[in-house]
Specification:
This protein is of the alpha/beta class. It has helices at about 10-20, 25-30, 35-50, 65-70, 85-90, 130-135, 160-175, 180-185, 185-190, 195-205; strands spanning about 55, 75-80, 95-100, 115-120, 140-150, 210-215, 220-229. The radius of gyration is 16 Å and the shape is globular.
């Protein structure tokens, strides 16, 4: 699914609603806990920007937003998601501000936030470019966007990782959640998601400058950062 590919929003919302109860535990098991370290790194980066208002788009069960809430106690952290079932878990886990909202039509004024983040959510959106433009709209000039998502490692790791992605991960996730089909699309979505220079170019084209990538864990995931211009 490239930059112009349309995901099925109804399927995505329904799939996440079905796995909401076991989503957090499943993510930690499938990543061997490294997803926790990735989010903590993002929270430290956001803290270094000293934001007053932060929006975490597609916050899901609030994993990243909660990390940022702890790391940036003086900032107002808002988590938005279009799946109410996922947000209910975020609220119960202690996220103070949540809002059911479509990432392609955020209910905020222009320039409301200093930082907008999205972790493992952009890949599931109907239009990557439109979602990034909407994030730019709600950011003040000079504000930062940060995208954390899966990517493919380079070199010798790529082939075994792809085999794991398509053969082992869906079966493990299906066992843990009882909802195998909700994870069957994951491998394909990662394969076709823009990464590296391609993602940086996509971000820059939506009103940002100096987009750059930071690979994590040998490239299994990547952080993309840019400044609103």
């Amino acid at each position: 699914m490239g930059a112009g590919t349309i995901q099925d929003p109804s399927y995505v919302r329904e799939a996440f609603a079905r796995i909401a109860d076991r989503y957090v535990t499943t993510n930690h098991v499938l990543s061997l806990g490294t997803d926790i370290l990735w989010r903590r790194k993002v929270a430290r980066i956001v803290r270094s920007w000293q934001p007053r208002r932060v929006l975490d788009v597609a916050t899901g069960t609030g994993d990243l937003a909660l990390e940022m809430q702890d790391a940036c106690p003086d900032a107002e952290i808002t988590g938005s998601d279009f799946c109410a079932e996922m947000l209910a878990h975020a609220s119960r886990r202690g996220l103070a501000r949540t809002l059911v909202a479509d990432a392609l039509a955020l209910p905020f004024q222009d320039g409301e936030f200093d930082v907008v983040t999205v972790a493992f959510g952009l890949r599931n959106m109907a239009d990557y470019a439109a979602a990034i433009r909407e994030m730019r709209r709600v950011l003040r000039p000079g504000g930062h966007v940060l995208v954390l998502d899966f990517s493919l490692p380079e070199g010798a790791m790529r082939k075994p990782y792809r085999w794991y992605l398509h053969n082992i991960l869906p079966k493990m996730a299906g066992y843990l959640t009882g909802q195998k089909d909700a994870y069957e699309y994951l491998g394909g979505s990662i394969e076709e998601f823009p990464m590296g220079k391609e993602m940086c170019a996509l971000i820059n084209a939506q009103g940002f400058g100096d987009a750059h990538a930071q690979p994590l864990t040998c490239g299994v995931a990547s952080i993309y950062m840019a400044e609103a211009v």
